[in-house]
Amino acid sequence: MKGELPWRVIPNRISISGTRGKTSLAFLVYSEIVGKNKGVLCKITGTLPLMFINKSTILMKRKGPAKLYENVIPTNIGKLDYCIMENQGISVYTMKVFHEVFLRPQTVVLTNIRLDHVENLGKTREKIASAISSTITKDVRLLLSGETDERINQILKKGYYEFDVVYSPKPELPGSEIPVLGDYLLRRYGFSGIDVWMYLRKIESELRWKETRGLVFYDGSKINDPNSASLVLRWLGGVPLIILQLRRDRPGRTWAFLKMIRERWVDYNSVIVSGDWSDMFAKKTNGISLPDSCEGASKALEIMRERGIPAFLTGSRGGKFIRCLLEMLGVKGIPLVYGELPLEVNLKSRG
Questions:
Q1: Domains identified in the chain and CATH numbers
Q2: pLDDT single digits (tens) 123-141
Q3: Whether residue 1 has pLDDT greater than 60
Q4: What SS3 string covers the chain?
């Protein structure tokens, strides 16, 4: 792959790993560094894979599920000082390939450890932490954790790299570890820090029920694990209608949401579910199964109007049902923990 991965010669390479908030953290650090007129590359994954090279934005080509090879670009990126990439691996093998072959980072950041990708990493947070820890290579000099559970941090801690934990001044606020991690990273690399409290206020302003045409809802469609969803729901308050999008390629996620809902992970009114295995899921939760289509989304809107209670959308952003429902609710853009990802005018397709 020599010559295909030009970022491997960038002197400062940072891998953003963990469960939730990776895109938000990567874009925060990138925005601060590019604002200082330093050469920087940033790759984010998810619904819309983007690569930022200084102030240019490239839309990456993707067919089907995310793959490591979508990162390979035939572009001369020039001389850059910093590289920030989301580790998009969802198994020990792909995470390790990302670290050993693709990026070779000196710094790895773990935003948090939540119950996701359980079919590949393990069915407890402790097993997931152990699996992720095994992907940290000898080249890594610093492992930075935003996880608040000390049992998890003890699993992550090893002897051959520096290990540090950052603590939010407002730990009860979901996502509050993201600006604190960003502040630490920037200072570590010699930049001035950020106004953490300003970001915390932004997060608070985003973590509220939204209303459109008399319908109250929260777009948690990028909250893909039940641990994080329950934290956000407790912050929002109320007894909501849960609207859950399932994916065939994420059976472990389906299992995790089913397990948590059946154990009354949070008070809720009822569950609307769409996607693969939705009939089975609905039967086991006394919920409502709807087609993974715009017709199913229209029916969900009718139910929201009939119930007259807040609706919490979660599970995935990748199905036809949830995409249509978000469009019907007027939701656009890519949500970040502290707002929305701004896409520049010069967005262009890679090719």
A1: 6-201 (3.40.1190.10), 208-330 (3.90.190.20)
A2: 888 998 888 888 888 888 9
A3: no
A4: CCCCCHHHHCCEEEEEECCCCHHHHHHHHHHHHHHCCCCEEEEECCCCCEEEECCEEEECCCCCCCCHHHHCCCCCCCCCCEEEEECCCCCHHHHHHHHHHHHCCCEEEECCCCCCCHHHHCCCHHHHHHHHHCCCCCCCCEEEECCCCHHHHHHHCCCCCEEEECCCCCCCCCCCHHHHHHHHHHHHCCCCCCCHHHHHHHHHHHCCCEEECCEEEEEECCCCCHHHHHHHHHHHCCCCEEEEECCCCCHHHHHHHHHHHHCCCCCCCEEEEECCCHHHHHHHHCCEEECCCHHHHHHHHHHHHHHCCCEEEECCCCCHHHHHHHHHCCCCCEEECCEEECCCCCCEECC
